Amino acid sequence: MSRIGKKPVNIKDVQVELNGKTLKIKGKLGELQFEVHPNIDIEINGDELNVKRHNDLKENRALHGMTRSIIQNMVTGVTEGYSKTLEIVGVGYRAELKGKNLLLNVGYSHPIYFMPPDEITLEVPSPTQVKVSGIDKELVGLVAAKIRSFRKPEPYKGKGIKYSDEVIIRKAGKTAG
């Protein structure tokens, strides 16, 4: 059995609705839904949600733990939410909000305008920090990765857009001979 898949999901603070294979989870921050794979069953027992699989085929074993993790992330998202912080490093590199859109100046000859999805909120606490937050863990990570991809950190001076907890391994440059 999957160790992660066996653990029950605590659904005390959320409303769970199961229609066929569609699971809807509603909490104080919003609502998320997920299409459960046909080989996986969901059981709701009071304040706990259990994920079961039909048999021990390799595909079903993989789906078991993954489905439980996705449901746990949905519950955490609608109760607490997720956020990622990006740091902008470089002389003259900065970010600002124009309405809901993000304007980035990261060393190109033109500014970059980024329009986030409706479910995501962007904050710019300082010109060198961008905070991406929302209830969907996958979408928050995807948007943060997209913003980071506009100017990835380079290994010589460390300039670029990086996650706040990311460590850039620096390389030694050429030495004058």
Pick out its properties.
Outer Surface Protein A, domain 3; 2 domains; alpha+beta; about 180 residues; 3-stranded antiparallel sheet; about 20% helix; single chain
What does this structure look like?
The termini are far apart. It is elongated and about 65 Å long. The model has no long low-confidence stretch (mean pLDDT 93). The protein folds into two domains: 3-79, Ribosomal protein L6 (Outer Surface Protein A, domain 3); 82-163, Ribosomal protein L6 (Outer Surface Protein A, domain 3). The protein has helices at residues 3-6, 58-79, 137-149; strands at 9-10, 15-19, 22-26, 31-35, 40-45, 48-53, 82-89, 94-98, 101-105, 112-114, 121-126, 129-134, 160-163. The chain has 177 residues and is an alpha+beta fold. The strands form four sheets. It has a four-stranded antiparallel beta sheet with strand order 11-12-7-13. A three-stranded antiparallel beta sheet has the order 1-6-5.
Order of helices and strands: HEEEEEEHEEEEEEHE
Low-confidence stretches: none
Structural class, by secondary structure, is alpha+beta
Question: How would you describe the oligomerization state of the chains in this entry?
Answer: single chain
Instruction: Give the amount of beta strand, in percent.
Output: 35-45%
Helix content: 10-25%
Radius of gyration: 21 Å
Shape: elongated
- Cross-sheet strand order for the largest sheet: 11-12-7-13
CATH class of the largest domain: Alpha Beta
How does the major sheet shape up? 4 strands, antiparallel
CATH superfamily of the largest domain: Ribosomal protein L6
Q: Number of domains in the coordinates?
A: 2
CATH topology of the largest domain: Outer Surface Protein A, domain 3
Tally the beta strands: 13
Q: What average pLDDT do the residues reach?
A: 93
Q: What is the tally of helical segments?
A: 3
